[in-house]
Design a protein that fits this description.
The chain is mostly helical. The protein has a domain at 28-59. It has helices spanning 10-33, 38-70. The protein is extended, with a radius of gyration of 16 Å.
Length: 73
């Protein structure tokens, strides 16, 4: 039997994972473009991740409602 978290944590877990992946990709690409070191990439990631997380947590519900208004249900 697998342990599952309660549904009420779904949005926060989604935002946490999505921001982690997005932060890794964006900071990695920018670091590659600027030919930076692994330490510089890690620093950029650690700055970007919380900002991406807060952006997703605050904007995802608004964007979802906006998209709901654009598409048929």
């Amino acid at each position: 039997m697998r342990l599952k978290l309660p549904q009420k944590y779904r949005d926060a877990i989604f935002a946490l994972l999505m921001s982690f992946i997005t932060g890794l990709i964006v900071s990695g690409i920018i670091s590659l473009i600027h030919h930076t070191t692994m330490a510089a990439w890690l620093k950029a990631f650690l700055i970007a991740w919380p900002m991406v997380f807060l952006s997703i947590i605050t904007m995802a519900p608004r964007v979802s409602r906006f998209v709901d208004g654009l598409v048929e249900s």
